[in-house]
């Protein structure tokens, strides 16, 4: 199963950079995508819970005991069309555009959005997310170019380390985002003690919130999922082994009906997220 996953060595990422930069021009015309990318549910407590009602896009969590062949779970996974999604800019172009809360009005004007538009609200939201103080035991960075993302991953994983990047991929595009998936094969653990997860944020060009928690153990797995209609997903999943310092109101605890520190919490990465790891020496 491992050979089918979206993975590549660092030199292939340079080729990916060239491809993305070729599509990343005319940045002023890019649409700001709406919808959850999973970041709110991974980093923050949710305010969208009303009794047993939870935003379906938050249903990406499960218990580590569920990580076994034959287990069926309701999971939200949506596959965005890359041709309509914002693309990464070069470092030079990204650095030429302001990116701070002090310049929000200038940024909105640069992209020619109305100050009351949902695009303007998304810009303000993303910049504020990027300026938040890190959580306890968290290192974080917002990457506005692939060069800056690679630099950040290398700085945490090792300048001389052989890096590999993983993501969730669909064998074919799903017809609906929320459905029951069954684990079809024994999950394969990715043997790396270091990882940097990068989550997309809504913005006119691609912005990734990248972070890691070096003092907390996180286990990474490749999981083959299958739906009743025959759809297949090669999913990337992470299991956080110590949740004792998580917010007691975190949506995962309410969804799984557990308490902080009582059990590891696992989640599937949305397909537009990237996870960098350092391969074992």
Overview of the structural elements:
It holds the Pfam family BURP. Residues 61-279 form the BURP domain. The chain is of the alpha+beta class and 281 residues long. It has one domain. Helix content is 22%, strand content 25%. The protein has helices at 10-23, 39-43, 91-95, 104-110, 118-131, 146-157, 251-256, and strands spanning 61-63, 72-76, 139-143, 163-166, 169-170, 178-183, 188-190, 195-201, 207-212, 218-227, 232-240, 265-268, 274-278. Strands 1, 2, 5, 6, 7, 10, 11 and 12 form an 8-stranded antiparallel sheet that branches. A hairpin with a 4-residue loop joins strand 10 and strand 11. The chain is globular. Mean pLDDT is 82; it is low at 1-26 and 44-52.
- By DSSP (H or I, 4+ residues per run), the number of helices equals 7
Overall geometry comes to globular
Order of helices and strands: HHEEHHHEHEEEEEEEEHEE
Q: What assembly state would you assign to the polypeptide chains in this entry?
A: single chain
Determine Rg (CA atoms, Å): 18 Å
Mean pLDDT: 82
Query: Helicity range of the residues?
Result: 10-25%
Low-confidence residue ranges: 1-26, 44-52
Largest sheet: 8 strands, antiparallel
What is the beta-strand fraction?
A: 15-25%
Supply the helix-strand structural class. alpha+beta
Number of strands: 13
Distance between the termini: 22 Å
Query: How many distinct domains?
Result: 1
Keywords:
single chain, 281 residues, alpha+beta, eight-stranded antiparallel beta sheet, 22% helix
């Amino acid at each position: 199963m491992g050979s089918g996953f979206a993975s590549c060595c660092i030199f292939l990422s340079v080729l990916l950079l060239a491809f993305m930069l070729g599509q990343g021009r005319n940045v002023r015309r890019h649409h700001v995508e709406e919808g959850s990318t999973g970041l709110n549910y991974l980093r923050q407590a949710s305010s969208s819970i009303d009794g047993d009602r939870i935003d379906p896009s938050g249903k990406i969590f499960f218990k580590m005991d569920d990580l076994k062949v034959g287990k069926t779970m309701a999971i939200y996974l949506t596959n965005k069309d890359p041709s309509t999604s914002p693309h990464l800019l070069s470092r030079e172009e990204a650095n030429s555009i302001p990116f701070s809360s002090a310049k929000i009005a200038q940024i909105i004007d640069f992209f020619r959005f109305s100050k009351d538009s949902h695009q303007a609200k998304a810009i303000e939201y993303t910049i504020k997310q990027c300026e938040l103080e890190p959580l306890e035991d968290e290192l974080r960075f917002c990457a506005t170019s692939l060069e800056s993302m690679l630099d950040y991953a290398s700085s945490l994983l090792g300048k001389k380390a052989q890096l590999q990047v993983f993501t969730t991929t669909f064998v074919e595009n799903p017809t609906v985002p929320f459905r029951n998936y069954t684990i079809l094969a024994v999950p394969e653990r990715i043997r790396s003690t270091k990882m940097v997860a990068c989550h997309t944020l809504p913005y006119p060009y691609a912005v990734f919130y990248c972070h890691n928690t070096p003092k907390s153990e996180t286990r990474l797995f490749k999981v083959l999922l299958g739906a009743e209609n025959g759809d297949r997903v090669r999913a990337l999943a992470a299991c956080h082994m110590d949740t004792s310092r998580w917010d007691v109101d975190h949506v995962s605890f309410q969804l799984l009906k557990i308490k902080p520190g009582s059990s590891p919490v696992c989640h599937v990465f949305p397909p537009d997220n990237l996870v960098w790891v350092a391969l074992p020496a």
